[in-house]
Amino acid sequence: MQEAARRLAGAPSGDASSGLVVGQRREIPMATDDRRLDVVKPGGQIRSLSPDGATTRPREGKAGVRTLVFAETDEPGAYRVRATRADGSSVERPDESFVVNLDVRESDPTRLADDHRPDRARGAGNGGAAPKRRLELWHWLSAAVLLFVLFESALTLRFRRGRLLRAARG
Q1: Which of 1, 24, 37, 166 could join 49 via S-S bond, C-beta 3.0 to 4.6 A?
Q2: Which residues of the chain have pLDDT under 70?
C-alpha cells in the first residue's frame, strides 16, 4: 500500500529519503549527459544548477557519481527537478524530486520550563517575575451595552405609548 501511494505521489520508492526540513541541503546526482539541473521551488521560481559546482562522491555503491548541492530550501513544499541534456532537451527527473517540511520541533506543544520562556527571562522588563493577571473588560463593556440597549427600548416604548394615548384622546 505504501509503495502504491509513493508511486501515485511521484515520490521515490524504497528507502530513498525524499523529505527534508527547511534549511537542509539536498544532494542531486547528475547523469553524464546532463548540462544543467533546474529545481522548481513550490512558489514556481526556478533555480538553475550548473555542473561547475558538481562534486564527485560515491553513492549507493556507484563510484564517481557527480552530485550538485541545492541549498535554497527556504520554503516548505514539493520541489521538482528537471535536467537539461547536452542535446538541449529537457527531461523531468521525478526520482530526484523532494519535499521540504517544517521542523516538527517548532510544533511541540509541551510547556517550556520557566528559564526557557522569553516572557519569564531575566531582563524582560519585569525582572523575571510572573506576568500579572490581566483584567478582562469585555464582560463589563458588553453588559453596559446590553443595559443601554434595554434602557433605550424602554424609553422608546414609553414615548410611543404616550403619543398613542394622546392621539386616542384627541
Answers
A1: 37
A2: 6, 9-18, 53-64, 120-131, 170
